[in-house]
Amino acid sequence: MSRDGSMKLVALGLGGNVGDPRAAMADALRELDARSDCRVLAVSRLYATPPWGKTDQAEFLNCCALIETSLHPESLLDVCLDMERRRKR
Predict the structure, then answer these.
(1) pLDDT, tens digit, for every residue of 11-27?
(2) How does DSSP assign 1-57, residue by residue?
(3) Which residues contact 72 (CB under 8 A, 6 or more apart)?
(4) In the CATH hierarchy, which fold is given to the domain comprising 8-86?
(5) Across the chain, which distance is largest between two alpha carbons, in Å?
(6) What integer is the mean pLDDT of 35-62?
(7) Is residue 51 within 8 Å of residue 58, measured between CB atoms?
């Protein structure tokens, strides 16, 4: 919970280029929205972007999501990282 228990607006960036990133991002957003401490309010359209640095890979699909959450920033990060680990990302 946030220190005062109130809901905060948070913008999250999502992206990927392995497997089916469109489905993976949709699944992750559904999982976040199913939590009692998070609610997905809006999601941008998908943007295709070229790889940077290591350029011999597929383009990335990216989007942003606006969520409302009572989680403290570090707790939200832990939730997101756990979701990535479970998806082997």
Answers:
(1) 999 999 999 999 999 99
(2) --TT---EEEEEEEEE-SS-HHHHHHHHHHHHHHSTTEEEEEEPPPEEE---SS-SS
(3) 1, 2, 3
(4) Alpha-Beta Plaits (3.30.70)
(5) 47
(6) 95
(7) yes
